[in-house]
Design brief:
By secondary structure, this protein is mainly β. It has a single domain, classed as 6 Propeller (Neuraminidase). It has one helix at residues 117-120, and strands spanning 2-3, 13-15, 17-19, 48-54, 60-64, 71-75, 79-84, 87-88, 94-95, 108-113, 122-131, 134-143, 156-162, 173-175, 181-185, 207-211, 237-239, 247-250, 257-261, 267-273, 287-288, 291-292, 311-314, 321-326, 339-343, 348-354, 359-365, 371-376, 382-386, 390-396.
């Protein structure tokens, strides 16, 4: 249906050193969001380590599970690999390299298994492809074969969206607690969103989409989508104003959504969406982070109603946010409730948590290059991919393997 982003044993241990820095530079003071200008006390932040799982992956960009202990790793050129019991299997789960336009931010960018995968065998992928000279995003349905480690190459197209450029293609998809499929779409590329897609209700780009794919040949519109009765906004749209929500997630404990939105030239941002919220505008390209964007588009009125991020960082700190997950596993209780995210360009890793009075940020210094994506295992344990080809599990450090960090300045915005 058409409509308008590289194997071995498991227990090699990689400690993570912590940078005990406090954000007190002018670029990090959020004038409209600070409670005060002095650090507050906060629960002790966890010391963490990265446990090596496998390498030998090629440009990995996503990792997820299918309701069991296996991990499915998406390789950007168009291949899905399986990691089972700490071993990278020799045969891909799916290879659609011949269908995928790969390069830069293009490629096979997203994978999600249907909530009823155990019975339906259905899963969904998000990839870019060329139709003649035009670039598109395709959301497609596939099915597993009788062999649980091999999928059929038979494809069912769910949604096609034309792209304007080879970047800002989004890519992440998740089924929400409500059973609907949510799709993150970038603004279509080029600098500054020159076509104004992110604020345009007639475009699916620069949005979070919400569709019903259960029992549908393509998809249906959930009746409670926020703009169903608005003739100026496409029915699929669930949220506005995003530049490139490369990686985002649902908190399996609360149902809240966490969005890492990649910035333009100055600011990266984390957006928090409480469970049950919809129809929000996250500001791009009227704002970049909490700051008025100097090249704001024609749809940006002075009083535009938007939801600012709960956290932002300047390009002196990092250039490309990799959104992550809130830890809800059972193996490491002290990590519980912390949101993990990273920066691809500067290879940084942070946690963010709410302690009842403010958001608190902790920075770690991981020995990992280009963190491209986080993922959850079936029991809520967290994983981190290096675009250079390795998969790690995030664990709590023991002994002298990690340092307990200090906590950054709190923000006033409540969840």
């Amino acid at each position: 249906m058409n409509a308008d982003r590289p194997r071995t044993g498991r227990f090699f241990w990689l400690p993570v050193l912590v940078l005990a820095l406090v954000f007190l530079t002018a670029n990090q003071l959020y004038a409209t969001q600070l409670r005060d200008e002095t650090p507050e006390s906060a629960p002790e932040a966890p010391s963490i380590s990265l446990d090596f799982v496998v390498n030998g992956l090629f440009a990995p960009v996503a990792v997820t599970h299918a309701g069991d202990e296996r991990l499915f790793v998406v390789e950007q050129p168009g291949v899905i690999q399986i990691v089972q019991n700490g071993v990278l299997l020799g045969t891909p789960f799916l290879d659609i390299n011949d269908r995928v336009a790969f390069g830069g931010e293009m490629g096979l960018l997203g994978l999600v298994f249907a909530p009823d995968y155990a019975t339906s065998g259905a899963f969904y992928v998000n990839y870019t492809f060329f139709d003649g000279s035009s670039l598109h995003t395709r959301i497609a349905r596939y099915h597993v074969t009788a062999n649980p480690n091999v999928a059929s190459r038979t494809e069912e197209t769910v949604l096609i969206i034309q792209q304007d450029a080879t970047n800002h293609n989004g890519g992440d998809m998740h089924f929400g607690p409500d059973g609907y499929l949510y799709i993150g779409m970038g603004d279509g590329g080029n600098q500054n969103d020159p076509l104004g897609h992110a604020q345009d209700g007639a475009s699916l780009k620069g949005k979070i989409l919400r569709i019903d794919v259960t029992g549908q040949a393509t998809y249906a519109i959930p009746p409670d989508n926020p703009y169903v009765n608005n003739p100026d906004v496409l029915d699929e749209i669930w949220a506005f104003g995003l530049r490139n929500p490369w990686r985002w997630s649902f908190d399996r404990g609360t149902g809240a959504m966490w969005i890492g939105d990649v910035g333009q030239g100055s600011w990266e941002e984390v957006n928090y969406v409480p469970y049950g919220s919809s129809g929000r505008n996250y500001g791009w390209n009227c704002f970049e982070g909490t700051h008025v964007f100097p090249l704001a588009g024609p749809l940006c009125s002075p009083g535009i109603n938007h939801t600012p991020p709960i956290h932002e960082y300047s390009h002196s700190v990092g250039h490309a946010i990799t959104g992550g997950y809130v830890y809800r596993g059972t193996e490491y209780p002290r990590m519980g409730g912390y949101y993990f995210f990273a920066d691809f360009s500067f290879s940084k890793l942070w946690t963010l948590n709410w302690n009842g009075t403010g958001w608190h940020l902790t920075e770690y210094s991981p020995s990992i290059v280009n963190p491209s994506s986080f993922g959850e295992g079936v029991n809520g344990e967290l994983y981190l991919l290096s675009h250079n080809g390795s998969l790690f599990e995030i664990t709590e450090a023991s002994g002298n393997a990690g340092l307990t960090p200090r906590v950054y300045l709190p923000l006033v915005t409540t969840p």
